[in-house]
Please model this.
Amino acid sequence: MNRMIRVLLVDDQPLVRAGLQTLLGEEADIDVVGDAANGEEAVAAVASLTPDVVLMDIRMPVLDGLEATRRLTTDGSLARIVILTTFDLDEYVFQALRAGASGFLLKDAPGEEIVRAVRIAARGDALLAPSVTRRLIERFSDTRRAEPPQLRWLTEREREVLLLMARGLSNSEIATGLFLGETTVKTHVAHMLAKLELRDRVQAVVLAYESGLVEPGLR
Model:
């Protein structure tokens, strides 16, 4: 039997939390282990409940979702944080991704999409549609930082994979484009993330844009 996915719900609106509880509670492989009304409660709940996935609102009293995400990732939490937002270009979403969130989800997304997002996050994959990734990064990465030295440690093939990933291609699409097996691409991605000391491919995409490796607008 597969292990249950433990989920923590974080939102200052009780109706939102109740709706998510009802939706996710119907899934046999998902266990909603708790909820929180602000970021401060969320940080404490993650420590005590050890969820696999946190659905985190951004705009909350006491402590917002952005700072809560920073605290959790800085403290070394293994929980995958998925940002919940009302608007697909919320000004804090990119900052949250930079802080260590694994992706974001619109609050008005269909129920099946929310369930799918939880499962995707639980297995460590990215949660950003390519078109939305590009829109977010093009809007919010208006400042560039120097290319980190770790990029020089990448092999030529790993750098190619990073470039294609940053342009929104999935592992299967990268495999087709480079005439490689999908398993080989996954191995390159894993090595690249380890060398760059990043949690997941979302952070790798952010790094690629911020360092100027990929320029906004390029496809």
In short: The chain has two domains: 5-127, 140-210. The first helix runs from residue 14 to 25. The radius of gyration is 17 Å. The longest strand covers residues 30-36.
